């Protein structure tokens, strides 16, 4: 299913195309070459001092069902209900320190978000569905996967091939079919000084 953004101004096609679907095809694996392309896209994100503070752990249900299951069990029930069909789960992690000198990196999370946006845009370009999730138990993930303290757990990401919205329960199907929307531009984008909307 496609749900392109109805933009007020022209944007690149892939930006309009990307969205966060929940109907995923459990029977269809994500090819290794597509998975590597997602990571390659993330890898080419910009970062402060070129430090590349992001880290990702990937779980492929078709490769290692037991490890995937452990990742799945970190999700909150509201995400489990649909992410059970995702052949790929990932977690993104942000380094709190610069690798080159171990001093605090206040842009680690910012850069990791940029990398993840690259990743989900690449997924859209490959006609894959990618859905980021904050709804998971980060401490459980840290313990389960031995994530060192210096990395902050950011989003988990469910990736798979799209499926029909009919596979979802009624409430999720309604969300899946609902129009996408954004807050008014003037509430977020200012010109010259704080609060003065761009016209
Ligand atoms: C950091 C982050 C956390 C999110 N957490 C969840 C989540 O736990 N469950 C969920 O269904 N969607 C989650 N989303 C998806 C957002 O709800 C979605 O991106 C937003 O509503 C805009 O919709 P769109 O991505 O289709 O444009 C998350 C997105 C981001 C970026």
Please give a structural write-up:
With 199 residues, this protein is an alpha+beta fold. The chain has a single domain (13-163), classed as NADH Oxidase (3-Layer(aba) Sandwich). Helices cover 33% and strands 15% of the residues. It contains 7 helices and 4 strands. The chain has helices spanning 13-17, 32-43, 65-72, 77-83, 108-125, 138-144, 170-177, and strands spanning 54-60, 88-95, 129-133, 151-160. The chain has a 4-stranded antiparallel sheet with strand order 1-2-4-3, sandwiched between helices. The protein is globular. The two termini are 34 Å apart. 31% of the residues are buried. The structure holds flavin mononucleotide. Flavin mononucleotide (FMN) binds next to strand 3.
Beta content comes to: 15-25%
The CATH architecture assignment turns out to be 3-Layer(aba) Sandwich
What's the main sheet like?
4 strands, antiparallel
The helix/strand order is HHEHHEHEHEH
Which fold name fills CATH's third level, the topology?
Answer: NADH Oxidase
- How much helix is in the residues? 25-40%
Radius of gyration: 18 Å
Determine the mean pLDDT: 98
Write down the overall geometry.
globular
What's the arrangement of secondary structure elements?
Blueprint (H helix, E strand, L loop, with lengths): L12 H5 L14 H12 L10 E7 L4 H8 L4 H7 L4 E8 L12 H18 L3 E5 L4 H7 L6 E10 L9 H8 L22
Antiparallel strand pairs: 1-2, 2-4, 3-4
Helix pairs in contact: 2-5
